[in-house]
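User: Could you check the structure of this?
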Amino acid sequence: MNKKVKGLIFSAVVICLAGLLVMLIQTNGPKEIKDIKKIAAQETYTQADKEYIVYFWQEACSYCKQIENVVLEYTKTGETPLYIVDMGDKENAVSWYDWQDHHNKYDKVIGRVEDGKEILDDAININDFINDKDIAWSIQSRDDHKLYAVHQTAYENQMPKSASELEIAGTPTMLKIKEGKLVDYRVGVEEVAKLLKN
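Assistant: Sure, the predicted structure tokens are below.
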């Protein structure tokens, strides 16, 4: 064999091996969410990539488990890097939405509990809460024997300009960052899945 033919065969073998390596890397991506690179919430806007996605996740989150396969598949085939912020880590606690303050402001006393029986105040129409299309309410009794309409719809900042403005109301939440600025904010299973499929 002459040198030219040997050179062509060598080049073809190298190209095939490189292609095989790329395929192996893609199929051997993270097998579990916890295998994806984790960052702290305070690092949300400071990654070196021009564009990336930050996924606010918790291991015990049942909604996160519903999209686990979508996220793992994305990490194998998606073009935009994805990072995980584990909201179960103490270092990320400062980025949680203040639900206690929220409930102090928005929950309403609507009655009382006497002898195990719930009694609504006269001015209360329970259908106003049940049929509210803008706010999710739940009805709960507490140790003070009062009956509460509990306001379950967060008013978090969905346009945070920096990590110090993050208010993660629940998981899953995903932010898409481009050149250090927020370009997309998604909360919930369906919305997060849509972001990854775009």
